[in-house]
Amino acid sequence: MRWDIFCQIVDNYGDAGICWRLARSLSSLHGQEVRIFCDDLPTLNLLASGVDPEIKAKIALLPVEASYSNARHPVQAPDVVIEAFACALPERYLAGLFIATKKPIIINLEYLSAEPWIMEFHGKASPQSHGIPKYFFFPGFQDEVGGLLLDPVPQISHLTATQIPPALKDVWSVLRPGVKRISIFCYPGAPLGKWLEDLSTLGEEFDILLTYGHAELLGSFSGQQTSLPNHLRLLSIPFVSQDEYDWVLSQCDFNIVRGEDSFVRAQLAGKPFLWHIYPQEDRAHEAKLAAFLDLYLETANQELRLATIAAMTWAMPSQWVSSLDDWSTHALTWRSQLLKTQRDGGLAARLLRFVG
Ligand code: TRH
Questions:
Q1: Gap between the Cα atoms of 146 and 134, Å rounded
Q2: How far is the CA of 271 from the centre of ligand 1 (A)?
Q3: pLDDT in tens, 39-98
Q4: Among 207, 217, 154, 202, which Cα is nearest to 183's?
Q5: Ligand 1, closest atom to CA 111?
Q6: pLDDT value at position 182?
Q7: Measuring from atom 27 of ligand 1, which residue has the nearest CA?
Q8: Where would a tag sit more exposed on the chain, N or C end, judged by fewer CB atoms within 10 A?
Q9: Segments forming the whole domain that contains residue 76
Q10: Statement to judge: residues 70 and 212 lie in one domain
Q11: How far apart are the C-alpha atoms of 355 and 4, rounded to whole Å?
């Protein structure tokens, strides 16, 4: 089938990240023909860099305008149109679909949530005045919903610890053997300086990998690193490709992640993590985090449950670090559990079955 994915980048990388991962899964794992129309191609290209050119060549990354200037429309509409995160389709593209002989299915690909209400809404029709069938598709953890995006192909994220991606060689060369590693990818507003300061008092050594732009978030704190005994070493990594970032997550002992793509990757890396969920004005993110923790901690003992909830809500590391070993074991169990629930192929495969 032919798929058109529309991606509007609001202010972060997540929209492009999800679209790119989905496109790769559909193309590499399921042999689908995919085009992504994006309003910010440089960002999309940045994430997609470093991928095997043969895989990349099969997916068209195009500006939004190309969706209505292409000769394929209105004669040949795709089979499926994805509106990633409910982004609006360009009017001229939609006009082409109206007069196409065979109408596609439009999928409103929603945000990932662990909240139980999505089970009721997943797959529901969203009737439109133009008559082209449109459905809601909710990614999620339960069997009844849209699933999770798994790794598209065994590439960099599956390399072993010694197969360091070239872009990370410099940083990796100064990591201290046997020292715990923490990667940091969070939103501005996180109490990062205080968090690191607390970490530095634990008497244990940590190498801290700051993803692109995060040294600036730390402001004066990063300038004070000499006053932090050797316990903490702060290292900035460049913006790397999506696969390389996945690899970083798999090579750290603890990860701070943020939007829904890195959140799922951290879980599939099988490591303890802090999900700095995107803060929403109506505090809807609090309900989302609580719903996830209900699932994530279902089998955890009371001590680990309290430690994890504390960590996920930015309590200082000294308050929960003693549970880190238990948490590491739990993270591996959770990973296997996730892979079991997604053995049907996860989101891409469920999407294919849904439209098929
Ligand atoms: O960038 P994000 O904060 O995106 C968010 C989410 O989509 C969120 O749900 C949405 O509401 C909000 O934007 C508006 O975080 P996320 O989802 O983790 O996406 C980051 C992507 O960037 C992910 O695919 C990994 C990728 N990435 C790289 O490719 N290289 C890097 O160096 C880093 C740090 C990330």
A1: 15
A2: 18
A3: 999 999 999 987 778 888 899 999 999 998 765 555 578 999 999 998 999 999 998 898
A4: 207
A5: 9
A6: 98
A7: 242
A8: C
A9: 2-150+343-355
A10: no
A11: 13
